[in-house]
Amino acid sequence: MGFILINIFFGIIIVVSLVILWFVWPPDSPWSPWWVVRTRQIREGLRIAKVTKKDIVYDLGSGDGRVPIIAAREFGGRGVGIEIDYIRHLTAWLKVRLYNLKDKVTLKRGNFFDYNISDATVVFVYLIPRVLEKLKPKVFRELKKGTKIISYKYKFEIREKDKLKLVRSDTKNQIHLYKIT
Ligand SMILES: C[S@@+](CC[C@H](N)C(=O)[O-])C[C@H]1O[C@@H](n2cnc3c(N)ncnc32)[C@H](O)[C@@H]1O
Protein backbone atom coordinates (compact mmCIF):
# COMPACT_ATOMS: atom_id res chain seq x y z
CA MET A 1 0.00 0.00 0.00
CA GLY A 2 2.81 2.42 1.02
CA PHE A 3 4.64 1.63 -2.23
CA ILE A 4 1.55 2.43 -4.32
CA LEU A 5 1.01 5.72 -2.49
CA ILE A 6 4.65 6.74 -3.07
CA ASN A 7 4.28 5.93 -6.80
CA ILE A 8 1.06 7.95 -7.01
CA PHE A 9 2.74 10.85 -5.19
CA PHE A 10 5.71 10.92 -7.60
CA GLY A 11 3.37 10.46 -10.55
CA ILE A 12 1.44 13.55 -9.51
CA ILE A 13 4.69 15.54 -9.02
CA ILE A 14 5.84 14.58 -12.54
CA VAL A 15 2.51 15.48 -14.16
CA VAL A 16 2.31 18.84 -12.33
CA SER A 17 5.94 19.65 -13.29
CA LEU A 18 5.23 18.83 -16.94
CA VAL A 19 2.14 21.05 -16.94
CA ILE A 20 4.15 23.93 -15.41
CA LEU A 21 6.96 23.40 -17.94
CA TRP A 22 4.42 23.37 -20.77
CA PHE A 23 3.42 26.92 -19.85
CA VAL A 24 6.78 28.51 -19.10
CA TRP A 25 9.24 26.99 -21.57
CA PRO A 26 10.39 29.32 -24.40
CA PRO A 27 8.57 28.70 -27.68
CA ASP A 28 11.64 27.87 -29.76
CA SER A 29 12.08 24.36 -28.51
CA PRO A 30 10.10 21.25 -29.36
CA TRP A 31 9.11 21.13 -25.70
CA SER A 32 7.77 24.64 -25.74
CA PRO A 33 4.25 25.43 -24.51
CA TRP A 34 1.54 25.30 -27.07
CA TRP A 35 1.24 29.06 -27.48
CA VAL A 36 -1.06 29.98 -30.32
CA VAL A 37 -2.22 33.11 -32.05
CA ARG A 38 -5.96 33.80 -31.87
CA THR A 39 -7.73 33.28 -35.18
CA ARG A 40 -8.92 36.89 -35.15
CA GLN A 41 -5.32 38.10 -35.01
CA ILE A 42 -4.22 35.69 -37.73
CA ARG A 43 -6.99 37.05 -39.99
CA GLU A 44 -5.91 40.58 -39.20
CA GLY A 45 -2.27 39.76 -40.01
CA LEU A 46 -3.19 38.14 -43.32
CA ARG A 47 -5.54 41.00 -44.10
CA ILE A 48 -2.93 43.73 -43.56
CA ALA A 49 -0.47 41.67 -45.63
CA LYS A 50 -3.17 41.66 -48.36
CA VAL A 51 -2.97 37.90 -48.86
CA THR A 52 -4.73 36.66 -52.01
CA LYS A 53 -5.05 33.39 -53.89
CA LYS A 54 -1.72 34.13 -55.58
CA ASP A 55 0.18 33.93 -52.28
CA ILE A 56 2.17 31.14 -50.73
CA VAL A 57 1.97 31.65 -46.98
CA TYR A 58 4.54 29.90 -44.78
CA ASP A 59 4.19 29.57 -41.03
CA LEU A 60 7.57 28.83 -39.47
CA GLY A 61 6.67 26.84 -36.36
CA SER A 62 3.11 26.18 -37.44
CA GLY A 63 1.74 24.49 -34.30
CA ASP A 64 -1.71 23.08 -35.05
CA GLY A 65 -1.67 24.54 -38.56
CA ARG A 66 -4.14 27.35 -37.96
CA VAL A 67 -2.19 29.95 -39.99
CA PRO A 68 -1.79 27.95 -43.24
CA ILE A 69 -5.36 26.67 -42.84
CA ILE A 70 -6.84 30.18 -42.51
CA ALA A 71 -4.61 31.43 -45.36
CA ALA A 72 -6.04 28.70 -47.60
CA ARG A 73 -9.68 28.57 -46.42
CA GLU A 74 -10.36 32.27 -46.03
CA PHE A 75 -7.85 33.99 -48.30
CA GLY A 76 -7.57 31.40 -51.06
CA GLY A 77 -3.76 31.22 -50.87
CA ARG A 78 -1.57 28.18 -50.53
CA GLY A 79 -0.39 27.41 -47.02
CA VAL A 80 2.81 25.75 -45.88
CA GLY A 81 3.40 24.89 -42.23
CA ILE A 82 6.66 23.65 -40.77
CA GLU A 83 6.50 22.29 -37.23
CA ILE A 84 9.10 20.45 -35.19
CA ASP A 85 6.77 18.96 -32.60
CA TYR A 86 5.20 15.62 -33.58
CA ILE A 87 1.91 16.08 -31.71
CA ARG A 88 1.30 19.59 -33.06
CA HIS A 89 2.21 18.38 -36.56
CA LEU A 90 -0.21 15.47 -36.22
CA THR A 91 -2.98 17.80 -35.02
CA ALA A 92 -2.40 20.05 -38.04
CA TRP A 93 -2.33 17.01 -40.34
CA LEU A 94 -5.73 15.88 -39.03
CA LYS A 95 -7.22 19.38 -39.33
CA VAL A 96 -6.05 19.69 -42.94
CA ARG A 97 -7.82 16.43 -43.76
CA LEU A 98 -10.91 17.44 -41.81
CA TYR A 99 -11.20 20.67 -43.80
CA ASN A 100 -10.34 18.87 -47.04
CA LEU A 101 -7.41 21.18 -47.73
CA LYS A 102 -4.84 18.61 -48.80
CA ASP A 103 -4.41 20.33 -52.17
CA LYS A 104 -3.90 23.78 -50.67
CA VAL A 105 -1.97 23.18 -47.45
CA THR A 106 1.38 21.42 -47.18
CA LEU A 107 2.69 20.41 -43.79
CA LYS A 108 6.29 19.53 -43.09
CA ARG A 109 7.47 17.96 -39.87
CA GLY A 110 10.91 19.16 -38.86
CA ASN A 111 13.16 22.09 -38.14
CA PHE A 112 12.35 25.10 -40.33
CA PHE A 113 16.05 25.94 -40.56
CA ASP A 114 16.43 22.76 -42.62
CA TYR A 115 13.82 23.71 -45.25
CA ASN A 116 14.17 26.05 -48.18
CA ILE A 117 11.46 28.71 -47.99
CA SER A 118 12.33 30.66 -51.13
CA ASP A 119 8.92 30.16 -52.79
CA ALA A 120 7.14 32.00 -49.96
CA THR A 121 5.45 35.30 -50.76
CA VAL A 122 4.31 35.77 -47.16
CA VAL A 123 5.93 34.34 -44.03
CA PHE A 124 4.18 34.23 -40.67
CA VAL A 125 6.16 33.86 -37.44
CA TYR A 126 5.31 33.71 -33.78
CA LEU A 127 8.76 33.21 -32.32
CA ILE A 128 10.73 34.80 -29.50
CA PRO A 129 13.24 37.60 -30.35
CA ARG A 130 16.26 35.31 -29.95
CA VAL A 131 14.90 32.99 -32.65
CA LEU A 132 13.87 35.91 -34.89
CA GLU A 133 17.47 37.11 -34.73
CA LYS A 134 18.72 33.63 -35.63
CA LEU A 135 16.23 33.49 -38.50
CA LYS A 136 17.40 36.71 -40.14
CA PRO A 137 20.32 35.31 -42.21
CA LYS A 138 18.00 32.61 -43.57
CA VAL A 139 15.25 35.02 -44.62
CA PHE A 140 17.77 37.43 -46.20
CA ARG A 141 19.38 34.55 -48.08
CA GLU A 142 16.24 32.78 -49.27
CA LEU A 143 13.35 35.24 -49.53
CA LYS A 144 12.81 37.35 -52.63
CA LYS A 145 12.63 41.11 -52.53
CA GLY A 146 9.07 42.19 -51.67
CA THR A 147 8.25 39.09 -49.62
CA LYS A 148 6.15 40.03 -46.61
CA ILE A 149 6.82 38.82 -43.09
CA ILE A 150 4.13 38.96 -40.45
CA SER A 151 5.52 38.66 -36.95
CA TYR A 152 3.07 38.17 -34.14
CA LYS A 153 3.91 39.80 -30.81
CA TYR A 154 7.70 40.04 -31.13
CA LYS A 155 9.57 42.45 -33.36
CA PHE A 156 12.70 41.89 -35.45
CA GLU A 157 15.58 44.05 -34.36
CA ILE A 158 16.48 45.85 -37.58
CA ARG A 159 20.04 47.01 -38.19
CA GLU A 160 21.14 49.28 -41.03
CA LYS A 161 22.59 46.43 -43.11
CA ASP A 162 19.43 44.31 -42.80
CA LYS A 163 17.32 43.85 -45.92
CA LEU A 164 14.16 44.32 -43.89
CA LYS A 165 11.72 47.18 -43.49
CA LEU A 166 8.93 47.53 -40.94
CA VAL A 167 5.87 48.45 -42.99
CA ARG A 168 3.19 48.51 -40.31
CA SER A 169 2.63 47.72 -36.65
CA ASP A 170 -0.85 47.02 -35.37
CA THR A 171 -0.27 47.37 -31.63
CA LYS A 172 -3.81 46.34 -30.68
CA ASN A 173 -3.44 42.97 -32.41
CA GLN A 174 0.35 42.78 -31.83
CA ILE A 175 0.93 42.29 -35.54
CA HIS A 176 4.11 43.60 -37.17
CA LEU A 177 4.33 43.59 -40.95
CA TYR A 178 7.74 43.65 -42.65
CA LYS A 179 8.95 43.56 -46.23
CA ILE A 180 12.20 42.18 -47.64
CA THR A 181 13.97 45.06 -49.41
C1 LIG B 1 4.54 30.18 -30.29
S1 LIG B 1 4.21 28.71 -31.19
C2 LIG B 1 3.30 29.35 -32.58
C3 LIG B 1 2.41 28.33 -33.25
C4 LIG B 1 1.65 28.84 -34.47
N1 LIG B 1 2.51 29.52 -35.40
C5 LIG B 1 0.52 29.75 -34.08
O1 LIG B 1 0.67 30.92 -34.34
O2 LIG B 1 -0.46 29.32 -33.51
C6 LIG B 1 5.81 28.37 -31.91
C7 LIG B 1 5.88 27.02 -32.58
O3 LIG B 1 7.12 26.93 -33.25
C8 LIG B 1 7.59 25.60 -33.14
N2 LIG B 1 9.04 25.67 -33.39
C9 LIG B 1 9.96 26.31 -32.63
N3 LIG B 1 11.18 26.21 -33.19
C10 LIG B 1 11.02 25.48 -34.33
C11 LIG B 1 11.90 25.06 -35.36
N4 LIG B 1 13.19 25.35 -35.31
N5 LIG B 1 11.39 24.35 -36.40
C12 LIG B 1 10.06 24.05 -36.46
N6 LIG B 1 9.17 24.43 -35.51
C13 LIG B 1 9.64 25.14 -34.47
C14 LIG B 1 7.20 25.19 -31.72
O4 LIG B 1 7.13 23.80 -31.58
C15 LIG B 1 5.83 25.86 -31.59
O5 LIG B 1 4.79 25.00 -31.99
Walk me through the structure.
With 181 residues, this protein is an alpha/beta fold. It has 2 domains: 1-26; 39-180, Rossmann fold. Helices cover 39% and strands 21% of the residues. A 7-stranded mixed beta sheet has the order 3-2-1-4-5-7-6. The chain binds S-adenosylmethionine.
Key attributes of the depicted protein:
single chain, alpha/beta, 2 domains, 7-stranded mixed β-sheet, 5 helices, 7 strands, 39% helix, 21% strand, binds S-adenosylmethionine
- Helices and strands: which structural class? alpha/beta
CATH third-tier fold name of the largest domain: Rossmann fold
Spatial strand sequence of the major β-sheet:
3-2-1-4-5-7-6
Q: Into which percent range does the helicity of residues fall?
A: 25-40%
Small ligands present: S-adenosylmethionine
Q: Give a count of the beta strands, DSSP E runs of length 2 or more.
A: 7
**Can you give the mean pLDDT?**
92
Which stretches are poorly predicted, pLDDT < 50 over at least 5 residues? Answer: none
| Number of helical segments with 4 or more residues | 5
CATH class identity of the largest domain:
Alpha Beta
How do the SSEs run, as a string of H and E? HHEHEHEEHEEE
How many domains, in number, for the residues? Answer: 2
Query: How far is it from the N-terminal to the C-terminal residue, by CA?
Result: 68 Å
Kindly estimate the percentage of residues that lie in beta strands according to DSSP.
15-25%
What is the fourth-level CATH superfamily of the largest domain?
Answer: Vaccinia Virus protein VP39
Q: What CATH architecture of the largest domain do you see?
A: 3-Layer(aba) Sandwich
Largest sheet: 7 strands, mixed
Mind telling me the C-alpha Rg? 18 Å
Shape by Cα distribution: globular
